């Protein structure tokens, strides 16, 4: 630690002090010299004046006496004074009595002295006697050289200045020493100790205070530095401790991580093992599911075939003449068989859901008609005091896109439940479109479902209460299937129900509109209805009749119609007709429950009267109203094709190897008025086709010699039979079966066992289509 001398604090302080002291000393010396100069200047005049005063009287006598000799002596005497360089005594007439001169002194201060005091000074003294001061006797003239005075003054000034400088230098050294001892040396020591101490040292040696500086600034500096050292040492200590703790934690963490890694490795190994096991299990499960599907398909085929025979035979027997007891026994057997078929279908559908095999169609279909048809089909199940009504929103699209079979299943499940659990009141099916979702609502006034049972009933094989099976039968599968169907169509099924008041099931399905609603041609006339305000018929009529341009008014039961003008009376109360007939001439449309038609003799007495069964479809209502209003002008729509006529003429080729099934189908077809030709296998079928014309072929799929698929392929190869309708008859109800039939060239599909209505509907659609196109 070496500080340059000129940079040291002691030097700087001493230099400043000395500079100030020197400047002050010089100024004081100059002031002193100035004073001295003024007094010396005055002393010259004073001294010469006193010389003149001394010489005044002798010189006056000499001038008065004109004594040149004495004058010379006096002048010489004056010249002895070192400052006098010339003396002259003259008389009153200015005559010189004596004049002496001396050369001026030469010295080193000459120039400066002359500058300060002037080179010479001249003094003139008028000579007179003291008692005659006004009378002058002559004049004494002295020429004074100022140099002796100036030299004396300058010597003094030189000494003053030099001594001042010397004092300053002495003071400088003295102060330098003192400052060095007092300031620089202790500071240098402190600095040296500071620079020797290491900043990161955990136990720094304390800096010693230089002796004698304990209480001054250096002492305070040392204390402050020591405190700082202590604080730094403490902090370092804390950091070191924290570092040690951190290292410990890290070590622990490393241990934990390695332990966890080991554990994870073990878990991973176990996981991959169980994954492999799971994969094996999954494969086994898949294989089992496939095996189950195959088993179900086979079983369903095996069960359906004898069931088909059983049901068909029972249906045929029921149509033959029987006594009441036999009829009842066979009916029970037939109904039980039907329940068995439904159960089989439900179980099959559930298994399809489980196996994810349910495939949905996406075709355009008339949902309104589908609902009306389903309601009509199920109306036979309605209790006598239950009014079943279909209320289709007039704005509902004519065709929507979706799977008609599955939608029919939903409607028929909900509707058959509603009819099953309702003994009095109404069952309504409402169809509307809300926010692009089709809304199918089935409301009843039946027994209702308790709040706590409402979530449960959607689980398979679950019913609302313990007594339900005993009282109403059922398997508890319908709603589970319905909900699954709704969900698979991206829709939802909701329920609102109150026990004792009834239930409302609502299926909301996203079925896109294909063809918008088609408006009915307006009718003209006045129609009245006699029905309870709460009846389904009243709601239906008030819904449609005004929309078709008819003037409509409802009267309550028992209300007098005396004087009421109308062109048509619609009622659902046959009992009041005999009372009403006398006052009403207009035709009557009687809407009754299925199987409650009036006997023909009563009809004749009340004529003109037409009877329609509930539920009234829109088309049936429109056509009946139109007919009864006798509106037969040119613009009226052509009457519907008489499908029964068509079916009577239909010639069907039935290809079926199983003699029981052959018998059943034959029986049903002949009941429908068809002409039937049978073939036991594909080869025979081709031969029969060669022999004559047919309107439709009913083709069993599994047959010996040539199966249904191959036979169809061969039929389609002939251009003659390109458009001949071929409908598959199969007991295999699995989804890929339909696709297989289509691929072979068949047009439709009927699962065995089938009911006569299903067969009739199928013939209606294919044979009627053939005749109308
Ligand atoms: P199932 O009718 O064959 O028993 P579902 O799954 O169709 O099976 O119905 C389950 C249960 O839900 C029924 O047993 C019945 O308790 C209740 N349920 C369904 N629909 C109705 C309804 N409309 N009114 C009252 N209860 C109903």
Question: What does the model show?
Answer:
The protein is of the alpha/beta class. About 2% of the residues have low confidence. It has four domains: 171 residues, Beta-Lactamase (2-Layer Sandwich); 149 residues, Histidine kinase-like ATPase, C-terminal domain (Heat Shock Protein 90, 2-Layer Sandwich), CATH 3.30.565.10; 108 residues, Rossmann fold (3-Layer(aba) Sandwich); 121 residues, Response regulator (Rossmann fold, 3-Layer(aba) Sandwich). The strands form five sheets. A five-stranded mixed beta sheet has the order 6-8-9-11-10, sandwiched between helices. The protein has a five-stranded parallel beta sheet with strand order 14-13-15-16-17, sandwiched between helices. Strands 19-18-20-21-22 form a five-stranded parallel beta sheet, sandwiched between helices. The radius of gyration is 73 Å and the shape is rod-shaped. Strand 16, helix 13 and strand 17 form a beta-alpha-beta unit. The chain has 20 helices and 22 strands. The site of adenosine-5'-diphosphate has 20 residues, from helix 8 and helix 10. It comes from Pseudomonas endophytica. This is histidine kinase. GO terms for molecular function: ATP binding; phosphorelay sensor kinase activity.
